From TrEMBL:
It comes from Arachis hypogaea. It comes from the Eukaryota. CDD domains: RNase_H_like. One of its GO terms (molecular function) is RNA-DNA hybrid ribonuclease activity. Residues 47-169 form the RNase H type-1 domain. This is RNase H type-1 domain-containing protein.
Length: 206
């Protein structure tokens, strides 16, 4: 079962007759609090992210798996060479799915990323023209049937900070790295905030 939890509101706005005025109002909404949400009891949550350096084009990926108590289960990060943001995000999701399946966490899985377009492609099985993107999507689609009861959702980047941190750490790594017992120290403050449900204020118009 695949569900799009966060509706792509901007897309809905531009389809209405008064789209321009409504879009302006949307962009000037008050700042909103965004927090990482724990999965339900018995569920496992994978947050994933890709990171691309402006100028060099070098990309890295990262992600983190936590349980319903927000307890750390696994983290991963690696540099993937030259790639655009879409490829980085797809690679991050693909690697996360592989690790989830390898560890037998295939029941009640919540997959969450901060790239709306990617979530839309996966959930709605939207067609893409780029052959490289198609290849990654085909790989992801071949992994999804191995999951029992799966939710895919978008979250603003303020709610995806742990995965973002792992992805940025990937730039500094010479080889793929997986953490299984405890997360690196630099991620601990984010884990604490997430476990407590502490929100980060998302500035209006972003």
């Amino acid at each position: 079962m695949l569900e799009l939890v966060n509706i792509l509101r901007c897309q809905k706005l531009v389809q209405s007759p008064t789209s321009f005025c409504r879009l302006i109002r949307y962009l000037h909404k008050e700042p909103i609090p965004v927090a990482w949400k724990k999965p339900g009891i018995g569920w496992t949550k994978l947050n994933f992210d890709g990171s691309c350096k402006v100028g060099s084009g070098k990309a890295s990926i990262g992600g983190v798996v936590r349980n319903h108590n927000a307890e750390f289960m696994l983290g991963y990060a690696e540099s993937i060479g030259i790639a655009n943001s879409t490829i980085a995000e797809l690679t991050a999701l693909r690697r996360g799915l592989e690790l989830v399946l390898e560890n037998g966490w295939n029941n009640d899985i919540w997959l969450e990323g901060d790239e709306k377009t990617l979530v839309d492609i996966i959930v709605r099985r939207r067609q893409v023209k780029c052959m490289e993107v198609q290849k990654h999507i085909s790989h992801i689609n071949s992994l999804l049937p191995g999951l029992n009861n799966c939710i895919v959702s978008h979250v603003y980047r303020e709610g995806n900070r742990a995965a973002d941190k792992f992805a940025k750490m990937g730039h500094q790594l010479d080889q793929p790295t997986i953490w299984t017992h405890s997360p690196p120290d630099e991620v601990l403050p984010i884990f604490h905030d997430d476990a407590q449900g502490i929100p980060i204020i998302r500035k209006k118009g972003i």
